[in-house]
Design goal:
The complex is a heterodimer. By secondary structure, chain A is of the alpha/beta class. Chain A is built from five helices and five strands; from the N terminus they run αβαβαβαββα. Classes of the chains: A alpha/beta, B mainly beta. Chains A and B meet through loops of A and helix 1 of B.
C-alpha cells in the first residue's frame, strides 16, 4: 500500500535535485543494468524516517566529493514496487532492505550498504563510507 | 488506498532499528525493532538461528547477518522479555 505521491514527492526530489536519476519501471532498471561500463550507484530510496532521513542527505553529501560514480540512480521501495523488485533481482543473495545503497564497477556489485548500517548514524558518517568507495573505485 | 505518515513518538527508542535479540536459550533473533518494554520485544521482518543449527554457532550466524542483514522469515514476532538475555543494534557487530 503506497504512500500518497504528494507526501513522497519531496523524498524523490531530494535525490533528483542532486543529479540522481529515478528508475520508475522494470524496463528502466534493465536498461541501467545493461550498461556495464564504468561505475554506478543505485540508491534504494525509502519513506522510513529513521534511516532514509539520513540516507538521502548522505548521498547528496557524498556526491559533492571530487570522485563520483559515472551514473547514480534510485528506485523507491514501497512506491515503485515493480522497479524495486527488478533491481533487487540483480543481487538475489542479499536480503532486501531500504534504504540501502549498491555500488557497481563494470557491472559487478562491489559494495552494498544495507539499512542497518545507515540507522542511528548521521548523514556525514554515512557519506564518509560512500566517499571511501568513490575514492577507491571512481576515476 | 494511500497511507499517511504515522507518528512514532510513543515507541521505544529502538523503534526502526535493526537489532540482535539474544535469548536465554539457544535462539538468537535479528529484526527491525517495532517496540520493546518490560513485557516484550516486538520485531518485524525478523529471522532467527538456533545455536549449532547448520553447523553454525550464534556468533557465526550473526557475523553473516551483520554483513548484509537478514531475510524476512517472520513478518512479526513477539519475544517475552523474560527470554531476552540482551538486545543491541545489529550495526554494533559490524
Amino acid at each position: 500500500m503506497p504512500y500518497s505521491p504528494i507526501l513522497v514527492r519531496p523524498m524523490r526530489e531530494e535525490l533528483v535535485s542532486a543529479g540522481v536519476q529515478e528508475l520508475l519501471t522494470p524496463e528502466d532498471v534493465d536498461a541501467f543494468m545493461a550498461e556495464t561500463q564504468g561505475t554506478a550507484m543505485l540508491v534504494f530510496n525509502s519513506v522510513c524516517g529513521c534511516a532514509a532521513g539520513m540516507a538521502r542527505p548522505a548521498v547528496r553529501l557524498a556526491l559533492e566529493n571530487g570522485k563520483t560514480p559515472d551514473r547514480v540512480v534510485s528506485v523507491f521501495a514501497g512506491q515503485d514496487v515493480e522497479a524495486t523488485a527488478k533491481a533487487r533481482s540483480y543481487f538475489p543473495d542479499i536480503p532486501p532492505s531500504s534504504p540501502s545503497i549498491a555500488f557497481f564497477k563494470d557491472g559487478e556489485l562491489v559494495y552494498f550498504l544495507p539499512r542497518h548500517r545507515i540507522e542511528s548514524r548521521d548523514a556525514q558518517a554515512v557519506a564518509g563510507d560512500l566517499v571511501q568507495v568513490f575514492d577507491e573505485h571512481c576515476a | 488506498m494511500e497511507r499517511t505518515f504515522p507518528g512514532h513518538g510513543h515507541k521505544s527508542p529502538l523503534h526502526g532499528i535493526t537489532v540482535v535479540v539474544d535469548t536465554t536459550g539457544e535462539e538468537v533473533w535479528v529484526g527491525r525493532c517495532d517496540d520493546e518494554d518490560g513485557e516484550r520485544v516486538v520485531l518485524l521482518d525478523a529471522d532467527s538461528h538456533r545455536d549449532g543449527e547448520d553447523g553454525k554457532s550464534k556468533a557465526d550466524w550473526l557475523a553473516g547477518a551483520s554483513r548484509y542483514g537478514v531475510w524476512s522469515r517472520h513478518p512479526r514476532v513477539v519475544i517475552p522479555r523474560g527470554r531476552v538475555a540482551a538486545i543491541r543494534p545489529l550495526a554494533e557487530l559490524a
